[in-house]
Amino acid sequence: MKKIVFFCLALCAAFVARAQELPYGKYLTYGKSEFKENRFKYDNETNTWSLRKTSGLNTTLNILAIIADAEEEVRPDSKDYAIIVQMGKENKAAYVQVKCYSDETYHKLLTFMKDNGKKVVETSSGKKVKHQAFYGDYALELNMEQHTISRTSARTADRKTVKNVDESYNAYEFIIKTDVEPWSEYLEKQAAKKAKRDAKGKKKQSVDELM
Prior knowledge:
The protein is an alpha+beta fold. Helices cover 32% and strands 35% of the residues.
């Protein structure tokens, strides 16, 4: 009996150690008190914990630029981010999703996946590049998507000509998936609506389903 208990404790310790080594993996083992201590906000309907940062300075400067008829900054700040932890039943994490705009963070995550991940696969489509890999019991996904902004800025100094601006930025997404099924009131409602539509025969097949 003692050997079984020791084995279980050792297994739990190994799980926690691996989760902590994985970037953002520590959130997989967080409890309610730890989330609150780290200023995560809980959404009861979606059963998620989230932490977001949006540059207040960027927003203020954009408002002032509009007032002054100047050119505003339309790209997200590189320091902006969102960390979302989707929970399953019994307060277990289903996945961690990190969204950011930092090139440096993306390259760190990509290096980690290539150095430590198993069965690393890279795919691309249009302006999106996806890397997938396995790390222990987790499935990892790293996405990079380029966004282009075409707009007409405020008038130039002579206030006669209009300056056209084409800008682009990269949005990054890192996902850690566990074997726990996501669960929430919202997901249950969506599943119920889908089942109701299917029962009425109004389901529209996707192009993949028709393949």
